[in-house]
Amino acid sequence: MLFGFCVFCNQPKQAYLYNMRFDIITVLPSLLESPFAHSILQRAQKKGIAEIVVHNLRDYASNKQKSVDDYPYGGGSGMVMGIEPFANCIEKLKVARNYDEIIFMSPDGVTFNQQIANQLSVKGNMMVLCGHYKGIDQRIRDLFVTREISIGDYVLSGGELPAAVLVDAVVRLIPGVLSDETSALSDSFQDGLLDAPVYTRPADWNGHRVPDILLSGNTPEIEKWRFEQSIERTKIRRPDLLE
To answer: Fewer Cβ close by (within 10 Å): the C or N end of the chain?
Structure first.
């Protein structure tokens, strides 16, 4: 287990124990194999900083066919994911540990942003439910879910890709995951603005030069330039953030 400090809260002297665990419940576990087996998420798991466990919802179905959906009451198109498989899985997982959050990935949830990622980055155990078909029985949401999160105003085939987005955005914020921990603090949206343009070598490529200020070595002026560029880029691309 690794110890760190909360870099996104107003209590810099309060120590946090970082051993985050995500339990993801899905009917398509193989869809999540690749996102969690590479790059930063792989590194976080190898270091023991984060644990990501995927559960097949069909293992918790009580019928012979292992089906997890049924026709909606009241008629209408599509199928609805039933309450029993979810309830069986959630209750079994809760026997082993307490959960800070049980999150349902849903297009009608609160839109995910950097501030929510920051909040979740200091949690311990979280469960993520991935929906499919027409949706999930409302009683699952009423009885078990503590947060409903959307990654945008559009509909996907299921909650697996949104779950991968959420886990990636949260885990990278945990101290010890990134090789340069200050990098996450300068990302777009951390201060409500888009990030400034960035450059690397060569300084001159076919006549296209890096701005002279970045080559000056004058740190205060460089930071001032970056802040001004950040504001300008936000004005052009995301004026809603400045409101």
So the answer is: C
Tell me the average pLDDT across 144-150.
98
The CA-atom distances, in angstroms, between 192 and each of 231, 238, 243 are 10, 10, 10
Q: How many CB atoms lie within 10 A of CB 13?
A: 6
- Calculate mean pLDDT across residues 16-23: 74
Q: Is residue 182 part of a domain?
A: no
In this structure, which amino acid lies at residue 232? E
Q: What is the pLDDT of residue 192?
A: 83
Does residue 32 share a domain with residue 150?
A: yes
Give percent above pLDDT 90 in the chain. Answer: 80
Report the predicted TM-score, pTM, of the whole model to 2 decimal places: 0.85
CATH code of the domain containing 114 = 3.40.1280.10
Pairwise CA distance, residues 126 & 136, whole Å: 19
User: Residue 213: which CATH number?
Assistant: 1.10.1270.20
Per the DSSP assignment, residues forming a β-bridge with 23 are 53, 127
**163: Cβ–Cβ under 8 A, 6 or more apart, which residues?**
24, 26, 32, 105, 128, 130
pLDDT band at 164; cut points 50, 70, 90 = very high
